[in-house]
Design a protein that fits this description.
Helix content is 66%, strand content 0%.
Length: 139
């Protein structure tokens, strides 16, 4: 709406999961370059992978920070960081998506692998949102 002083005012409410999804898109797509994307699959502990998992974790924690309304216990930040980093490493470095696709006899298509990978990451974000303390509103 337009205020009397000709400034535009609008209230935007973004739920915790919305912020987590923004953090996911930033960390997994916007800030991941080709070197990270290809080299993270070359082993469990590659420099590219460790850098990507760290950037992703910071992106998710920053998104959570933006969604908080009051102080959040330090233990939550540590727990969330460990869950995000470890799950992202597990999904990306161990080729668990490929194993899942073989188990269910799904087509070995690149686009399908990307979709399943993204679903796995989003399921982790759902868990993080559910574990979030009341200071991080769920809407």
């Amino acid at each position: 709406m337009l205020a009397n002083d000709s400034t535009f005012e609008k209230e935007i409410t973004v739920c915790t999961f919305g912020w987590l999804l923004v953090g996911h898109l930033v960390g997994d797509w916007l800030l991941q370059n080709d070197w990270m994307a290809t080299q993270k699959r070359q082993g469990y502990y590659t420099p590219a992978g460790m850098l990507h998992y760290s950037i992703y974790t910071v992106s998710i924690l920053a998104a959570l920070f933006l969604s908080k309304t009051e102080d959040v216990p330090f233990t939550f930040w540590v727990t969330a960081g460990v869950i995000v980093f470890a799950s992202h490493w597990l999904i990306d470095a161990t080729n668990i998506v490929d194993r899942w696709m073989r188990l269910l006899r799904q087509s070995d298509l690149a686009w399908l692998r990307i979709v399943i990978d993204q679903i796995a990451h989003i399921l982790v974000l759902v868990v993080i949102a559910l574990l979030a303390p009341d200071a991080i509103p769920r809407c």
